[in-house]
Structure of Pyridoxamine 5'-phosphate oxidase family protein:
Amino acid sequence: MIETEERMRGIEMGKDEIDDFLYEQGHGILSLMGCGEAYGVPMSFGYDGDRIFMNLITFGDESKKVDYITDTEHVSLTAYHVETRLKWKSTVVNGMLEEVTDDKYAKEVLDDNALFPTLYPPTEPMSDVTRVAIQIEEMTGRKGEEYQS
């Protein structure tokens, strides 16, 4: 079967649908550029309709993620969910990353809708947690045709 370009690219999602998806998803890939190369890292996130909040967790003395963030001005976050070839959704959020000053609010947003898998290595305890937010400059989203209703 020959796929049409439209069928392969999916259907554009509107702002409300992107908002709902980001709120429900709670995890994605944060893309950074620093240290002379690109770096993508899985991240849990909380979304409040305006910003995306994340915890930068450091284990031990070093963190590649934190090293890259100090060299990165613009970031990109990709969140996606795939059930079948024609039933999928994806969003890309671009913006500036900033450290969060209202720690209580960020924690509430993260507790509300971030997905936190267990990833803490028992032999290497957390040494630091920094909360950051993406100031969203652009959001796009697409979905497979089986989500069309």
User: Anything to note?
Assistant: Strands lie at 11-12, 27-34, 37-44, 46-47, 51-59, 74-82, 88-99, 126-143. The chain is about 25% helix and 45% strand. The chain has one domain: 10-142. Helices lie at 5-9, 15-25, 64-71, 103-113.
